[in-house]
Amino acid sequence: KYVSKGSSGINAEYGGSREDVKVGEGVVRGREYPWGVVEIENEAHCDFVKLREMLIRTNMEDLREVTHKRHYEMYRRGKLKQMGIADDGAHGPVSLQETYEQKRAEHLKDLKTIENEMRSSYLQKVSRKDAEVKKKLNEMQVKYDGLRKAANEERDKLEEEKKKVNEELAEVKRTIAEVQRLSAEQANGKKGRK
User: Fold this and answer.
1) Strand pairing category for 12-13 and 2-3
2) What is the DSSP string of 107-171?
């Protein structure tokens, strides 16, 4: 197409294409005609490159502004929303440092709460186990005391029986000795009478 003299006083011709065309051994973006190929990126064929550079240079600041105000702000708000931070834009932009500190404080508070709950639960479990162990120890002590008492009674009973047996044995020995003495006296008495 042909662009007439504008404010810059430049005549320009440009063409556009989305197709790649094979030229020689390479592939270029351009348009193929019966009389030849117009290469979009070749300044000898088309003023598209100059037009593009002029538009970009002229509108670069607008592009930056729009990119920052619209696209970046939408991206930033979306990310903040994902993090759970409300930024409606009415109170100015939200400081990420303040938001970070706030979220960190909330997180530390939650961690402290969880830690206290876990500590309380742990202490309750330890207390219950301690009570169970003390109960078992008391039961074992009572059982041990009962067995010890029974063993002592059995020992005392056996000692008494042993004492009785020893007394009976001593009595039997005395009786045997008496019988032997009497037998010996009788035997001596019979010898003496003869």
Assistant:
1) antiparallel
2) HHHHHHHHHHHHHHHHHHHHHHHHHHHHHHHHHHHHHHHHHHHHHHHHHHHHHHHHHHHHHHHHH
**pLDDT of res. 184:** 86
User: What does DSSP assign to residue 89?
Assistant: S
Top-confidence residue, 63 or 154: 154
Q: Which helix (H) or strand (E) holds 183?
A: helix 96-193
Classify 89 in phi/psi space as left (phi over 0), alpha (psi -120 to 50) or beta: left
Which tokens hold the place of 174? 């005395």
Residue type, 146: G
Quick count: other Cβ atoms within 10 Å of Cβ 46? 21
Query: Measured between alpha carbons, how far is 172 from 166 in angstroms, rounded to an integer?
Result: 10
Q: How far is CA 110 from CA 86, 96, 106, 120, in A?
A: 20, 21, 6, 15
**DSSP tag of 48:** H
- Report, in angstroms and rounded to the nearest whole number, the Rg of the chain calculated over CA atoms: 59
**Over the stretch 112-147, which tens digit does the pLDDT of each residue have?**
999 999 999 999 999 999 999 999 999 999 999 999
pLDDT at residue 40, as a whole number: 73
Please report the pLDDT score of residue 124 as a whole number.
Answer: 96
Q: What is the mean pLDDT of residues 161-181?
A: 93
Element (H or E) spanning 72, and its range? none
pTM: predicted TM-score of the whole model, two decimal places:
0.35
DSSP 189: H
